[in-house]
Amino acid sequence: MKFTVQKPELPGFQITPMLDVVFLLLCFFVATTVYSQWENEVEIQLPTADSSVVPERLPGEVIINVAKDGTVRVNQRELTLEALGEKCRALAAAFPGNPVVVRADKGAAWESVLGVIDVCAKNDIYNVSFASAIPDEAAASEPPPAAVR
Fold first, then answer.
1. Which positions ≥6 away from 43 have C-beta within 8 Å?
2. Which residues pair with residue 63 across a beta bridge?
3. How far apart are CA 132 and CA 129, in angstroms?
């Protein structure tokens, strides 16, 4: 009697799970990009400077917005200087040397901006930069940045 041994078939390439993973990654990156754009307050008009350039975002960068009336916002939340100090203290403890960008309205009182700088310095945050806009002449020659809707 002759017995035949059936060879198991090799599994084929399964494209469905791979497509699921790719689409999930795509959704994740699109969602995180949208949230990072929300940190930039639209109603803030930055002062202009001739040396302004559009920087690349650094990982973990924190943006502090100072409005014309002196209110301080981080991630769309209005904070007092004491609450900002607590956030800065936690940030400095968890991530020393983390970059912070201060975006102050050009009509904001210097006292408000100085208060934010003072809070950062008191809480060991020294990697602070200031946002400025490109002057109108230079901005007119370049194409406008893509709008986020």
1. 67
2. 101
3. 10
Tokens of 12: 């084929």
Q: Which domains does the chain have, with CATH numbers?
A: 1-149 (3.30.420.270)
- Torsion-angle region of 106 (φ positive above 0: left; ψ -120 to 50: alpha; else: beta): alpha
The reported pTM is 0.64
Chain segment 11-50, per-residue pLDDT in tens: 777 888 889 999 999 988 887 765 555 556 567 888 888 8
Full strand arrangement of the beta sheet holding 100-104: 77-79, 72-74, 62-66, 100-104, 128-130
Q: How far is CA 39 from the centre of its chain?
A: 6
